[in-house]
Amino acid sequence: MMYITHLSLSLAIFYFLAYFQLFPPSVILMIVLGIGTLIPDIDHPESYISNTGSFTKFLSLTLTKELTHHRGFFHSIYGAIIVTIIASIIFFNIFPDFSPVQLALVFFMGYVFHLIGDSLTVSGVDWLWKNKKYHISGFIKTGGQLEAILMYALIFIIGYFFLKIGLT
């Protein structure tokens, strides 16, 4: 799934939850959600997140060369948990006015929404790394017409909820 569709999926679900007052529609929380949404693709040197700066490019190249491959460890629930713990410590130091639990939960949600999105694609995801028994795949071709339709529908949903509740 392409990064813009991942972000659209995460923001649509986040706004839906914010509409029911489970989260404030905070710009900071949406940034944390967005980073959580994009970070699983750090294992792909050509991904959007891997090309946002020299550090992320270096990290991506190192990870794919030394540790894993695309849709490997970072596309599993294990990766989601470990990266969320690390990111939560970083985010709490950057945004001390927010609850560390809230920051961790929003980051984890973004990460899991990414995995759900990739599970809808033909390539799918091994939710339990190296355990093909829990491989989930769908019918959406990455970059295909169905993904584009989904993305536009999600953007429409985001717009609807934005008009209803705005930002804080």
Entry keywords:
mainly alpha; 168 residues; 6 helices; globular; 2 strands
Description of the structure:
- The chain is mostly helical and 168 residues long.
- It has one domain.
- 60% of the residues lie in helices and 2% in strands.
- It has six helices and two strands.
- A two-stranded antiparallel ribbon has the order 1-2.
- The radius of gyration is 16 Å and the shape is globular.
- The chain starts with a helix and ends with a helix.
Short description:
The chain is mainly α.
Strand order of the largest sheet: 1-2
**Sequence stretches where pLDDT stays below 50 over 5 or more residues:** none
Number of helices: 6
Helix and strand string, N-terminal first? HHHHHEEH
Cα gyration radius (Å): 16 Å
Oligomer: single chain
The first-to-last residue Cα distance is 29 Å
In total, the number of strands is: 2
How would you sum up the global shape? globular
SS-based structural class?
mainly alpha
**Residues in helices, as a percent range:** 55-70%
Approximate strand percentage? under 5%
Number of domains: 1
